[in-house]
Amino acid sequence: MTAVDHQRAFGFRREVLARTSTRTAALPWGTAYFHDDYPLRYDANMAIADRALGGATADDVAGALDEAYAAFGHREIEFASIADADTVAMGLAGHGYAVERLTVMALRREADREPHTAATEELGYADYRPLSLEIHARQPWSSDPAIATSMAAFRGVLAEGVGARFFAQRIDGELAGSCELYVIGDIAQIEDVNTLEEFRGRGVARNVVLRAAQEARAAGATFVFLFADAEDWPRHLYVRLGFDEIGQSRLFTRSPGGEASRTGDPV
Predict the structure, then answer these.
(1) pTM recorded for the entire structure
(2) Closest CA to 64 of 27, 117, 103
């Protein structure tokens, strides 16, 4: 069941990309996705490798990405198969790619304690946008203000394309943190969980994630999942909230020269 659910999660990821792309291109081992209006957003202009590499080498993969994304400064590809990712990892490193280990986690159990979801609220995109802008402006890879503006604006694309919903919590009247929810059919993804630094340690992430999970169930989702950095602390929180690991993927990113690493980007 775990392997099947991992495939379902990746299928959902492809569907979200397809619904929020302006065009796609077939690759021998997957699909390249593009949103030409948002060239600065890596996750809107990336490839998914979800078919066997066969005899393709790291040079083949890097060359295909260079050709597909010649007009973009960055390159990004996510592998559903760890075995395929490991096959090309060293070679892609030689091409300047950094790797991020992602874990796919599905909601399987009740949270370790009763959620305080009454403290949360659902925001429309217009009300959510200023918080999203602030969150992304504080990221280490967002040295150019245009990047944060692009990231925040893309939430409107997600709202239109996949009906993205936004849940947040205020502390002392200020928006302190949030997450996003995408539901398609009976599958739901919780995404972009963030708390502003000055409000961390006060249960904001716990509350918004559990609120999103409740809303996903209420919308008919029987499978609720999220992606987390396998080497970062939030995955331990998600375990306490009832999420179990069902698989992993590998994300390879090559940033333009001189930019900060994108590792840790929540989007």
Answers:
(1) 0.93
(2) 27
